[in-house]
Amino acid sequence: MSPHDRSARQGINPTVVAPPRPVGRWETALTHLAVQHRVGAVAIGTAVAVVAALGIAATSIALATGWSSEVSRTHVLLLATFIPMAVAPPLFGSAFAVVRSLDRTRAALRTAAETDPLTNVLNRRGFFERFDGDCPPDACVHMIDLDDFKVLNDTHGHDLGDRVLIDVARWLEARLGDDVVVGRLGGDEFACISTTFDDTLANARHGFEVDGVGYSISIGTTRTSWNEGLSEALMRADSALYRTKRSASAPQHQHQQR
C-alpha cells in the first residue's frame, strides 16, 4: 500500500518534506574520493618540489665546486637546466592524470548517488538537491502515485511492477517535454516540475496497459509562487493528489499501450 493509500485510510493528509542528508555507501565513497582528490593535489605539489629541487641541487653543485675547468661548470649548468626539463613533463602529466581521473570518478559517483537505478530518473535526494530547496517561479509541480500498486505487485509479480515504474517515468518525461525534471521520491511515488502546464494531465487519473495488465496513476498539480520552497509546493501538490485519489469525479484518461 502506498503512503497515500495508508494516509487515506487513516484520514490523514500526507505531507512531503525534504529528506535528511543521507550517510550511506555513496556518501562514504564520495568522502573517500575527496581524500584521494587531495592526495592528487599533493602529488602535483610534490612534482613541482622535485623538479625545483633537482634544478637547485644541480645549480648549487655548479656554483660551489672549485672546478677550474669552465667546461665542467658549463656541463653542470646544462644538466641543471635539462634534467628538470626532462623530468617535469612525465611528473606533471602523471599528477594531472590522477586528478582528472579522480574528477571523472567523483562526477560518476555523484550521478549514481542522485539517480534512481531502476527508472534512471532523479532519486529523492537528487530531486531536492537539483533545486536546492527552492522552486522556479510559476512552474507546475505534479505529485504522481500509482493506484493500488501493492495489489499489482502481489498479483502479477515484482518484475511487472518494475516495468510499470519504468513505464511511468518514461511517460512523464515524454509527456512534459525537455524542460521537465522527474524524480522518484520513493516506492511508487513520483514528482515532476515543469514550466509547461497540461490541463489534461493535471489533477486527473490516467490509465495504461502493459502486457495485457491494466494499471492507473493519480496526479495532483499546483503552480508555484515567488520565493516558495520546494517542500511547500510539493505539500500543496500532495494535497491535490490526495483529493484526486478520493474524488469519484476526477477526470480519467485512458492511454494506449506503449
How is the secondary structure organized here?
Layout: H1 3-10, H2 25-64, H3 70-113, H4 124-131, E1 140-146, H5 149-156, H6 158-176, E2 181-186, E3 189-194, E4 205-210, E5 213-223, H7 230-246, E6 252-254
Parallel strand pairs: 4-6
Antiparallel strand pairs: 1-3, 1-5, 2-3, 4-5
Secondary-structure element string: HHHHEHHEEEEHE
Overall average pLDDT: 76
**Share in β-strands:** 15-25%
CATH-defined superfamily of the largest domain: Reverse transcriptase/Diguanylate cyclase domain
* Individual helix count: 7
Per CATH, the architecture of the largest domain is 2-Layer Sandwich
Strands of the widest sheet, in order across it, are: 2-3-1-5-4-6
| Low-confidence runs | 1-15
Tell me the radius of gyration: 30 Å
Largest sheet: 6 strands, mixed
How is this structure best described in words?
This protein is an alpha+beta fold and 258 residues long. The chain has 2 domains: 3-18 and 133-254, Alpha-Beta Plaits, CATH 3.30.70; 25-113. Helices cover 56% and strands 15% of the residues. The protein contains 7 helices and 6 strands. The chain has a 6-stranded mixed sheet with strand order 2-3-1-5-4-6, with helices on both faces. A hairpin with a 2-residue loop joins strand 2 (181-186) and strand 3 (189-194). Helix 2 (25-64) packs antiparallel against helix 3. It is elongated and about 100 Å long. Residues 1-15 have low confidence and may be disordered.
